[in-house]
Design goal:
Elements: H1 3-18, H2 23-27, E1 41-53, E2 58-69, E3 75-80, E4 84-92, E5 97-99, E6 102-104, E7 113-118, E8 123-131, E9 139-142, E10 154-157, E11 177-185, E12 191-194, E13 207-217, E14 223-226, E15 229-234, E16 237-241, H3 246-252, H4 256-267, E17 275-279, E18 288-289, E19 294-297, H5 310-317, E20 325-327, H6 333-352, H7 354-375, H8 399-416, H9 418-431, E21 435-437, H10 439-449, H11 452-458, H12 460-465, H13 479-492, H14 507-515, H15 523-533, H16 541-553, H17 560-569, H18 573-583, H19 587-600, H20 606-616
Helix pairs in contact: 4-5, 4-6, 5-6, 6-7, 6-8, 7-8, 8-9, 13-14, 14-16, 16-17, 16-18, 17-19, 18-20
Length: about 625
């Protein structure tokens, strides 16, 4: 091709790619899980003015929404679920405020109800006066008994995936971003914290003000109210926890500042100024939640030896993958989680070395194999790109998004080489910051990165739109696990476990060790290994989780009281599900499960008890 023609073509391409996308079309999110129509009228800023009423277990107040109207639509639509709407006002740009007409539409049991509010060309702000329901899926109201300190109650929210609408009337889709501010009234003895600029200590009047300048989607709205204190880790990073836990938490999480620096070195500057972690009471249903500026985390990672901090690496990584570059809707969930697991392991590799991060990858690979068996190798739910229309987006929260997603990205890294791949990812985060991403848009970018040979070697189509795990999946290797396998093999038959060889094992090695036991293992084997290592008395939830599974399978009754204590105290769904599922397999087991569940259920977050209800119904 002639040089000037090539130049012309290239410039044309450049001009085309720089053209600002049409705001209108860009806002059409095609989100099957939101009733809102942001292409017609969209929320730009939320001022949330609320009270947390611990007596009635409700939040009430007003959501003040600055909106932008496109074209000449006559209404703005918000998502709500189980909210009572008391009244709606609108403010005109001239400042006049008056009552507006509104209507709650039909809706359904998954999505809730659309709230239609009449607007016109003068509408600047809509004010929705509302209350939540005690059954709101986002909210958990803890009694003092359910906290570490046993003296004060506690409230925590979990908005992802579509629960924000159960505590705020809002356009609840990941493709819609807004800034927010808030005024939150709480009992005087408690501290309120949000995914925003936070106070470091309680004040006398129990009224807290928050501001979040950066635009975020509704699933990152978060609030927690409790007896929390703050400890600094670095000048931009610290930890909140109940006072009796604070020192322990700070010690466990001291590597966080280093993680931020390692992450920044790889993929660009941390965009959210501060990074703090809130360690919640044990009923928090997840391991962690990447609420911007303030990760929410389970206390089950506070085990004394910093062995479970990859969870922090994970939530921190979401500050880029997820919070900066956000899946356009929940069908693209793997873009949030697959990228984050990939980034998590890169942070852990930089912090602790490749042999260490490979342990994490192997454990994940084992979990993925189980998930595949559960879902069925041919199931459409094993595609990276999902179709969750008509279903709860929680159905898409499986190891497919996390781990198949991870291995796909790792394959891409191995195909193009780390240096080139890192350059690509850094540019990806930078160019798409505060924007949404679809699978198709990402694949377009990949298309420009890979050579034709690389494309056919990877087989993108099979990974993204096909079922199961393609045969070219990378396979992680760790000498730290190879030695565990050798050890298990050496002593399993005779049961003469040599304790000096295991002295330096970390949590992951113990988990790997136990996972390698047959399912079910003979009761004598389980009793024998317990006599030596005392797993039944372990206080490490990762070890307890797998140990109790093995114990239940072997009908090793000595562990049953410990199983009960564990299930009554811990509400993290990942630990609950395998144990309840295991018990539900036999009639006696199910009886035991129901007995335990009667005590345990009141301690669980709605997200957890709704899942366990399914297993035991
Ligand atoms: N964002 C997720 C949690 C989530 C996903 C909540 C979808 C609701 C719907 C969070 O980042 C996460 O993945 N947490 C994991 C821990 C992680 C180390 C894999 C968890 O909670 O287990
Ligand atoms: Zn995640």
């Amino acid at each position: 091709m002639n040089k000037s023609l090539l130049f012309l073509l290239l410039s044309l391409l450049l001009v085309m790619s720089c053209k600002k996308p049409n705001q209108h079309n860009d806002l059409k999110t095609n989100d099957p899980h939101s009733y809102s129509k942001p292409e017609e009228a969209v929320v730009k800023h939320l001022f949330l003015d609320i009270t947390a009423d611990f007596e009635r277990k409700i939040i009430h107040g007003c959501a003040n929404l600055d909106i932008e109207r496109k074209g000449n639509t006559k209404e703005i639509i918000l998502d709500t679920k189980m909210l009572t709407i008391d009244s709606v006002y609108v403010t005109e740009n001239k400042g006049k405020k008056y009552k507006a007409t509104f209507r709650l539409g039909e809706g359904d049991s998954i999505l809730g109800k659309p709230l239609h509010i009449s607007i016109d060309e003068n509408t600047q702000t809509v004010h929705v006066y509302y209350k939540t329901s005690p059954e709101a899926e986002a909210l958990q109201w803890l009694t003092p008994q359910q906290t570490q300190g046993k003296k004060y109650p506690c409230l925590l929210t979990q908005s992802q995936a579509i629960n924000a609408r159960t505590w705020i009337p809002i356009q609840d889709g990941p493709g819609i971003r807004f800034s927010y501010s808030a005024m939150v009234r709480v009992p005087k003895e408690l501290l309120a914290l949000m995914s925003a600029e936070n106070p470091v200590q309680k004040n006398k009047d129990g009224v807290y003000h928050f501001s979040m300048k950066q635009i975020v989607p509704a699933y990152l709205m978060a609030l927690s109210v409790g007896d929390f204190a703050f400890a600094e880790i670095s000048n931009r990073c610290g930890v909140y926890a109940e006072p009796s836990m604070l020192e322990k938490c700070k010690n466990e999480l001291t590597e966080t500042e280093e993680m931020i620096q390692l992450a920044e070195k790889m993929y660009g500057k941390y965009a959210w100024e501060r990074y703090d972690i809130l360690i919640l009471p044990p009923s928090f249903p997840f391991g962690g939640m990447e609420n911007p500026r303030l990760t929410f985390a389970t206390p089950t990672i506070i085990v004394g030896d910093r062995s479970l901090v990859s969870l922090v690496a994970h939530e921190l990584a979401h500050s880029w993958s997820g919070n900066l570059v956000t899946n356009a809707n929940w069908n693209d969930f793997w873009l949030n989680e697959g990228f984050t697991v990939y980034f998590e392991y890169r942070i852990m590799e930089a912090l602790k070395g490749r042999d260490y991060s490979e342990m994490l990858a192997i454990l994940s690979q084992q979990e993925l194999a189980i998930t595949l068996e559960d879902l069925g190798e041919k199931s459409p739910d094993t595609h990276l790109k999902l179709d969750l229309k008509g279903r709860n987006p929680d159905d898409g929260v499986t190891d497919i998004a996390y781990i198949k997603g991870y291995f796909f990205l790792r394959l891409l890294e191995e195909t193009v080489g780390r240096e080139k791949w890192d350059g690509f990812l850094k540019a990806y985060f930078n160019e798409n910051a505060f924007k949404t991403m679809t699978t198709e848009k990402f694949l377009d970018k990949l298309d420009a990165l890979l050579t034709p040979e690389q494309k056919s070697a990877v087989n993108i189509q099979a990974w993204v739109y096909g079922p199961g795990i393609p045969a070219n999946c990378p396979s992680p290797k760790s000498t730290l696990f190879a030695s565990v396998d050798a050890y298990r093999q050496k002593y399993y038959e005779k049961g003469n476990w040599n304790q000096t060889e295991t002295q330096n094992w970390n949590t992951h090695q113990w988990v790997h060790f136990l996972r390698g036991f047959p399912s079910p293992s003979p009761k004598e084997k389980i009793a024998g290994v317990d006599n030596v290592f005392h797993f039944t008395e372990s206080q490490n939830p990762e070890i307890q989780g797998i140990w109790f599974e093995k114990a239940l399978q072997a009908k090793y009754e000595k562990a049953y009281p410990a199983v009960e204590t564990f299930l009554v105290n811990v509400g993290r769904r990942k630990f609950l599900m395998p144990l309840y599922k295991e018990m539900a397999k036999t009639p006696q087991g199910k009886e035991m499960a129901l007995k335990i569940y009667q005590k345990a259920r009141p301690n669980y977050h709605p997200i957890s008890y709704m899942s366990v209800d399914e297993v035991l119904k």
